[in-house]
């Protein structure tokens, strides 16, 4: 059996994995990143919408090559069709992009490669390797159909919602059903939508979550939804909900579907522990996703970068113990945890709101004069009329 | 569990959602190990309805 030796092995070639690999390699660590699929960034399992501000923070320069749409605004649609349209001016000219994930992910992987990381495609992790004392010393994998072993000082689990690596390493990655959103999406074309506005449809169409229409230009869009697991009823699947909505929205019903994707996202504010001895979990694998929006790309990129930086420091002393990796835990929590907890509480509360109240909330926001629209300001407006909806987490607003 | 591979999109959602950590996705094939207690969470949550319990339609 072929054996590889390196400083760090990164499992998963999504944004979190590539960023971790890039910053490890840049820090002088011998880095291997493995990706089980034959292509990075495909098949699509994402709505592709991101905000703009964080890109600079992780040193990614926006490139039209992987940007599908530069958003002018967003539309929030209530259960009975009231809409609130948010324009660039109210969003501080910082609305967002719809990405081409298959190109964006490849770009990040190429950056990791340029920094010196070795990337092994069609290589799937199959288990972890421990020494006689029980210390994690690498992973077993299957590369192009052949079993291999990769020995490393530290494993970065960037294997997404599935997170098999975290489980093999003994980390608690289990989720309560109330913290899982199950999602289905179509790539549609020939639909009658505003090409530069992201649309969020809340309420009955997607119980406990929302339905999104994220434009890809020329009457194309990602049309999908996420439903809170506890709200699924009567054996109906997300794809059933999606078909039902599309059939009754005249803007979509005549469209063509050219791609189907599915997936799940966590709706909790991150795992309690994201490091162990010789292992770090990043991005979706660490459940670091915005519980309200389901957005995970920026969190994956940040945590990947943090992991790479912390591992670079650890390499100076050769200590990759849980204790030595703790600075990673502190970095992401300091940067993101407050917001994740706030949005988690908002998600929990909004999952209890009926359609009539959602209608009223959208009307209320319509009438408000928010100058800069973001979750923060929206919750402030909500607080004025429905203080009970934000009760208990006012301090975070 | 019975997997309808005509529907399954290999998204791995069931793997991450399984409370028993009993499901593994190996090269587009779902494997259920002995920890599976037939709770049915994967059946309920599958985005495309590709799973069912044995003996059920």
Which labels suit this protein?
heterodimer, A: 397 residues, alpha/beta, FAD/NAD(P)-binding domain, D-Amino Acid Oxidase, Chain A, domain 2, seven-stranded mixed sheet, six-stranded mixed sheet, 20 strands, 31% helix, B: 57 residues, alpha+beta, Alpha-Beta Plaits, two-stranded antiparallel sheet, 21% strand
Report on the structure:
The complex is a heterodimer of chains A (397) and B (57). Helices cover 31% and strands 28% of the residues of chain A. In chain A, β6 and β7 form a beta hairpin. In chain A, α1 packs parallel to α3, α1 runs parallel beside α6 and α6 packs antiparallel against α7. The termini of chain A are far apart. The model of chain A has no long low-confidence stretch (mean pLDDT 93). Chain B is of the alpha+beta class and 57 residues long. Chain B has one domain: 2-Layer Sandwich (Alpha-Beta Plaits). Chain B is 18% helix and 21% strand. Chain B is built from 2 helices and 4 strands, in the order βαββαβ. In chain B, the strands form 2 sheets. In chain B, strands 1-4 form a two-stranded antiparallel ribbon. In chain B, a hairpin with a 2-residue loop joins β2 and β3. Chains A and B meet through β14, α5 and β18 of A and α1, β2 and α2 of B.
């Amino acid at each position: 059996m072929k054996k590889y030796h390196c400083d760090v092995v990164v499992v998963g070639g999504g944004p979190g994995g590539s960023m971790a690999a890039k910053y490890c390699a840049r820090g002088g660590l011998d880095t291997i990143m493995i990706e089980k699929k034959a292509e990075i960034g495909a098949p699509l399992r994402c709505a592709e919408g991101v905000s703009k501000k964080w890109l600079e923070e992780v040193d990614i320069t926006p490139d039209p090559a992987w940007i599908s749409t530069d958003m002018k605004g967003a539309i929030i649609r209530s259960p009975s069709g009231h809409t609130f349209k948010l324009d660039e001016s109210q969003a501080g000219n910082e609305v967002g992009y719809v990405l081409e994930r298959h190109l964006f992910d490849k770009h990040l992987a190429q950056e990791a490669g340029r920094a010196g990381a070795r990337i092994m495609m069609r290589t799937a992790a199959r288990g972890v390797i421990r020494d006689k004392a029980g210390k994690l010393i690498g992973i077993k994998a299957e590369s192009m159909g052949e079993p291999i072993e990769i020995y490393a000082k530290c494993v970065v689990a960037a294997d997404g919602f599935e997170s098999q690596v975290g489980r093999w390493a003994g980390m608690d990655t289990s989720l309560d059903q109330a913290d899982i959103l199950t999602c289905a999406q179509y790539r549609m074309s020939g639909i009658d939508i505003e090409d530069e506005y992201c649309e969020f449809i809340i309420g009955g169409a997607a119980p406990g979550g929302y339905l999104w229409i994220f434009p890809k230009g020329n009457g194309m869009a990602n049309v999908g939804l996420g439903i809170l697991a506890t709200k699924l009823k009567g054996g109906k699947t997300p794809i059933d909900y999606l078909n039902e909505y599309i059939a009754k929205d005249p803007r979509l019903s005549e469209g063509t579907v050219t791609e189907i994707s599915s997936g799940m996202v966590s709706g909790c504010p991150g795992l309690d522990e994201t490091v162990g001895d010789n292992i770090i979990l990043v991005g979706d694998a660490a459940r670091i996703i915005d519980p309200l929006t389901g957005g995970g790309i920026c969190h994956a990129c940040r945590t990947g970068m943090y992991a790479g930086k912390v591992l670079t420091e650890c390499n100076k002393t050769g200590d990759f113990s849980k204790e030595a990796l703790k600075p990673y835990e502190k970095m992401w929590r300091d940067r993101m945890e407050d917001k994740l907890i706030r949005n988690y509480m908002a998600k929990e509360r909004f999952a209890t709101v009926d359609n009539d109240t959602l209608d009223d909330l959208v009307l209320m926001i319509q009438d408000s004069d928010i100058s800069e629209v973001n979750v923060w300001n929206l919750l402030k407006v909500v607080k004025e009329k429905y203080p009970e909806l934000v009760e208990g987490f006012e301090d975070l607003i | 569990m019975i997997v309808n591979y005509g529907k399954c999109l290999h998204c791995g959602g069931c793997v991450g959602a399984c409370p028993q950590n009993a499901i593994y996705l190996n090269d587009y094939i779902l494997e259920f190990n002995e920890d599976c207690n037939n709770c049915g969470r994967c059946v309920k949550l599958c985005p495309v309805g590709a799973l069912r319990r044995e003996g059920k339609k």
